[in-house]
Amino acid sequence: MEHVLLVAKALADESRVRTVMALRGGELCACQIIALLRLAPSTVSKHMNILYHAGLVKKRKSKQWIHFRLPNTEECSAEVRACFRWLESTLASNPIIIEDEKRITTEIAAMKEQTSV
């Protein structure tokens, strides 16, 4: 029961739900999440720690960057898998989520362009 409550509390914030939905497309750097949400780095860090401790995201550090991704099926609990299915079925066509997908695609393309120069 405790884990269910932890997951529910983690998803009780629009920014965290938007982040989980954005991560459906693959791993994102913390800087990309900051750009997507238009929040201060410290605020995004707090949100990501809440998601991480609830088991909703995985993280890895690469030099000075922290990257986040959704856990694969073997890495997460049944509760987390059920939440992912529920979010996908209820929010995939949400206008905010669709706009976030467009913005993150643009952000990734811009970052690739900068690194290739």
- β-strand number: 3
Q: Which structural category fits the helices and strands?
A: mainly alpha
Q: Could you give the order of strands across the largest sheet?
A: 1-3-2
* Fraction in helix: 55-70%
Poorly predicted parts: none
Question: What do you see in this structure?
Answer:
By secondary structure, this protein is mainly α. The protein has one domain (2-110): Arc Repressor Mutant, subunit A (Orthogonal Bundle). Helices cover 64% and strands 10% of the residues. Strands 1-3-2 form a three-stranded antiparallel beta sheet. Strand 2 (58-62) and strand 3 form a beta hairpin. Helix 3 (30-37) crosses helix 6. The N and C termini lie far apart (51 Å). The mean pLDDT is 91.
Which helices and strands appear, and what pairs or packs with what?
Elements lengths: L1 H9 L3 H9 L5 E2 H8 L3 H13 L4 E5 L2 E5 L8 H14 L3 H22 L1
Antiparallel strand pairs: 1-3, 2-3
